Each structure stands twice: as C-alpha cells, then as structure tokens.
C-alpha cells in the first residue's frame, strides 16, 4: 500500500472548501462536505482536465471544460459527456490533519 499523504490541517479545510494533494503522479481532490471529507482523482474522466477548477455544489463537482458533473461521495458520473466514474480514495483525520492516498 502507498503511504498516506498529508493534505492540510483540518482547520484549513472548512465545510465547502477543497484542496488538492499529490500522491506520486496522482492529483487528488479532497473536499469537506459539511464536516465529512471525500477524495476523488482530480481528473475528469471525459477529458484530462482538473476537477478542482470547477464549482462544488451539493456534493457534486462540475468540470469547467465541458460541464460533466460527478458525485463527490461516490465518484459517479452524473451527466454527459462523462460516463465513467472518477476514482475515489480514502481520507483519514489524524493528528489535526487531513490525509489521503492513492490506494489503487
């Protein structure tokens, strides 16, 4: 298994905010949704474009390139042009920090 990557202090990621961490070559978007933390690959499955550039609303992130939306809790693609889900990653809170890793 890969080692955990520190994203930021928990106090730096307030509800509705996001941050991007890198696990090797993998960018990971971490989002605080009302105190629950979720992580998905920061790459739209329709085209290789960072999801972190898009708006986060109601547990969804929208890719600014073509408007595909993904559920941040499940990774599910919610509308075209994306049909494949984004990979999800584990998140843990430990030592006052948010951690994630690419566990594929």
TrEMBL record:
Top-level taxon of the source organism: Bacteria
Per UniProt, the keywords (alphabetical) are: 2Fe-2S, Iron, Iron-sulfur, Metal-binding
Q: Name one Pfam family in it.
A: Rieske
> InterPro entries, from UniProt?
Rieske_2Fe-2S (IPR017941), Rieske_2Fe-2S_sf (IPR036922)
Q: Which organism is it from?
A: Arenimonas donghaensis DSM 18148 = HO3-R19
A GO molecular function annotation here is: 2 iron, 2 sulfur cluster binding
Annotated protein name in UniProt: Rieske domain-containing protein
Listed Gene3D superfamilies: Rieske [2Fe-2S] iron-sulphur domain (2.102.10.10)
Q: In this protein, which residues make up the domain named Rieske?
A: 5-100
Give the signal peptide range.
none
């Amino acid at each position: 298994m890969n080692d955990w990557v520190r994203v930021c202090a928990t106090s730096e990621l307030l509800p509705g905010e996001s941050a991007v961490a890198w696990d090797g070559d993998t960018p990971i978007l971490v989002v605080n949704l009302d105190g629950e933390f979720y992580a998905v690959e920061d790459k739209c499955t329709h085209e290789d474009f960072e999801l972190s550039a898009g708006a986060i609303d109601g547990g969804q992130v929208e890719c600014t390139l073509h408007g595909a939306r993904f559920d941040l809790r499940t990774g599910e693609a919610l509308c075209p042009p994306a049909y494949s889900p984004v990979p999800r990653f584990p998140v843990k809170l430990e030592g006052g920090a948010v951690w994630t890793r690419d566990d594929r």
